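Lab notebook, design round three. We kept the backbone fixed and only want residue identities now. Task for the bench partner: fill in a sequence for the structure below.
Input structure tokens:
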């Protein structure tokens, strides 16, 4: 029996940063089993530069076949600058077009939605309810917390409204996936039964570096003996990248490189005022992305001091794969700091503190052997805990459990007892991989279940 799945994700390929690559790999993985018909309701490619990609401008609706997946794209607004009002219009346009023109497809067996898009979450819940099928949101970012913590203009007023919508969407779920255990208490506080929360960490979706560091540094014009501090990814408000600009201003001998795009890029370039040791690079091609990361001496992840528990940057999985030490200028109690410490591949310093960041970078630059040893822990962590096989297995297990519960009539205790740690990544354990799939198991809607179905198995 073929399982028909609808994934709702505003972000999707060809986007190469943020949530898009994960949504794409999930959908193509399910389609690749040969036992799933996968549809995706997505927006127009626009992230991280917040401009609609060439070939999609002026397009209202389109359907594509990509990697065995049927992709249904719908037009929406794309704000070049972020404010609470513009973000609300962005979400409203996604919701309106999705309601007016839902995907043309037969009834799905389950609906999975990637948040932080509140509109995507509402659309997913609406479509699942219409067809009477399980609804499984996967929380990549917490939008209510983001509105309050990211520094977006008008965010304080928007936070309560966003939290209310987010809470309503999550409470409708059959199961809720979250990418980090630090999200569990906040999701539970929204009224979600903690026994229905599953931790499904992201994985490293890039290959390790292949070119010699010296070759790539020469190509990039980074001279020998100069310390290069690199930030790769979205340049948005919550990143608080001003700390890197100030670090470049404070230490002219340090080369600071901001690679990527985002709505704060122009602001940061103006703030830098033509500093000779501050470079802005376009996003690297996927084929050489990790080679560029590996060419740097230190990789930076930064967040505003107000960002505590609403986001864990997806760039970390790529940073670890590159094998260079990470300096995290982030709040000490948040998920980002916890993940850097868990990997053992970097150091954490107070956010928005250029001197603390510079002290950490100088320490690493002054002891290259120690820096290399620290960075080398990243690929080990990726192999042991962040493989795509394990990550995709966890997401598939989440879908399986929701489908099993629907088939079993959600018998009390059948799967709920697994608790929030089911599928979680524990640094003290080996990798958790998918054990068995309902794609194999489902033969008819009336199949009799023989008790709870284990959905993970530890190996190694």
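Proposed sequence:
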């Amino acid at each position: 029996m073929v399982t028909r799945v609808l994934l709702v994700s505003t972000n999707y390929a060809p986007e190469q940063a943020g949530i898009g690559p994960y949504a794409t790999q999930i959908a193509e993985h399910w389609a690749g089993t040969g036992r799933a018909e996968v549809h995706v309701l997505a927006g127009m490619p626009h992230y991280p530069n917040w401009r609609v990609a060439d070939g999609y401008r002026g397009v209202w609706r389109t359907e594509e076949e990509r990697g065995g997946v049927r992709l249904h794209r719908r037009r929406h607004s794309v704000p070049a600058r972020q404010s609470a009002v513009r973000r609300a219009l962005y979400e409203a346009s996604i919701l309106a077009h999705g309601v007016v023109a839902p995907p043309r497809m037969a009834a799905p067996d389950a609906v999975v939605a990637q948040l932080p898009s509140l509109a995507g979450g509402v659309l997913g819940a609406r479509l699942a309810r219409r067809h009477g099928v399980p609804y499984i949101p996967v929380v990549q970012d917490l939008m209510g917390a983001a509105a309050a913590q990211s520094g977006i203009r008008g965010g304080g007023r928007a936070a309560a409204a966003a939290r209310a919508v987010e809470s309503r969407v999550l409470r409708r779920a059959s199961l809720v996936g979250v990418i980090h255990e630090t999200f569990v208490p906040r999701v539970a506080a929204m009224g979600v039964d903690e026994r229905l929360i599953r931790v499904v960490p992201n994985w490293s979706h890039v290959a390790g570096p292949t070119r010699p560091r010296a070759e790539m540094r020469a190509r990039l014009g980074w001279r020998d003996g100069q310390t290069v501090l690199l930030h790769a990814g979205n340049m948005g408000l919550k990143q608080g990248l001003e700390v890197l600009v100030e670090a470049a201003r404070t230490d002219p001998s340090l080369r600071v490189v901001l690679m990527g795009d985002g709505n704060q890029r122009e602001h940061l370039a103006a703030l830098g005022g033509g500093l000779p040791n501050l470079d802005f690079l376009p996003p690297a091609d996927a084929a050489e992305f990790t080679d560029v990361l590996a060419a740097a001496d230190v990789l930076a992840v930064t967040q505003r001091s107000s960002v505590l528990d609403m986001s864990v940057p997806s760039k970390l999985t790529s940073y670890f794969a590159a094998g260079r030490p990470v300096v995290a200028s982030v709040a000490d109690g948040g998920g980002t700091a916890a993940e850097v410490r868990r990997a053992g591949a970097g150091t954490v310093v107070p956010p928005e503190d250029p001197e603390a960041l510079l002290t950490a970078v100088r320490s690493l630059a002054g002891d290259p052997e120690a820096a290399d040893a620290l960075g080398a822990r990243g690929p080990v962590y990726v192999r042991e805990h962040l493989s795509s096989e394990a990550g995709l297995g966890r997401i598939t297990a989440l879908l399986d459990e929701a489908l099993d519960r629907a088939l079993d009539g959600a018998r009390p205790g059948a799967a709920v007892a697994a608790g929030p740690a089911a599928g979680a990544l524990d640094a003290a354990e080996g990798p958790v991989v998918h054990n068995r799939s309902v794609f194999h198991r489902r033969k008819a809607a009336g199949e009799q279940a023989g008790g709870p179905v284990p959905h993970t198995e530890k190996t190694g």
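Keep this in mind before ordering anything: The mean pLDDT is 86.
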